């Protein structure tokens, strides 16, 4: 966030973001994301779940984006949340290492389901030859 405070633009900010810095003294959008990500990271570490729908704290992020928080308040909150995130990391419910077998099984299931669904749709249309080419040639990033 340092580069987005007090007009220290380094060539990557669009005009709207520059106006935020000019108006509020800092990039309120970045600040909102910082606070949200710190909160979400702590939740993930403690609960093992990702809560994307921010019903309980949505207004806080809107207030930050609207410049209702001073830069000093954002910095104090971020400092407190970094300390909280460290505590959450030290007491996480997450395993120390990823469960690679479980990840592989999930990926295989998802790919099988995806391909099976595509094949069924094509076969239902009576175009059995197209099954191989439509799956292999699809532009959805699978297999790249």
Give an account of the 3D structure.
The chain is mainly alpha-helical. The chain folds into two domains: about 1-90, no CATH class; about 100-135. Helices cover about 60% and strands about 0% of the residues. The protein has helices at about 15-25, 30-45, 60-65, 70-90, 100-125, 130-135. Helix 2 (about 30-45) runs parallel beside helix 4 and helix 5 crosses helix 6. It is flat, with a radius of gyration of 23 Å. The two termini are about 35 Å apart. The mean pLDDT is about 85.
List keywords for this structure.
6 helices, 144 residues, mainly alpha
Layout of helices and strands, plus pairs?
Blueprint: H1 15-24, H2 28-47, H3 58-65, H4 71-90, H5 100-124, H6 130-136
Helix pairs in contact: 2-3, 2-4, 5-6
């Amino acid at each position: 966030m340092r580069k987005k405070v007090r007009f220290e633009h380094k060539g990557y900010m669009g005009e709207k973001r520059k106006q935020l810095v000019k108006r509020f003294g800092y990039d309120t959008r970045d600040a909102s994301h910082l606070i949200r990500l710190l909160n979400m990271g702590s939740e993930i570490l403690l609960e093992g779940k990702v809560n994307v729908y921010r019903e309980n704290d949505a207004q806080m992020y809107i207030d930050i984006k609207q410049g209702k928080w001073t830069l000093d308040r954002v910095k104090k909150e971020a400092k407190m949340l970094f300390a909280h995130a460290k505590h959450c990391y030290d007491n996480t419910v997450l395993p120390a290492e990823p469960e690679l077998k479980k990840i592989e099984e999930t990926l295989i299931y998802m790919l099988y389901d995806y391909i099976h669904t595509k094949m069924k749709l094509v076969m239902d249309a009576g175009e059995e030859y197209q099954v191989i080419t439509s799956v292999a040639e699809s532009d959805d990033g699978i297999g790249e």
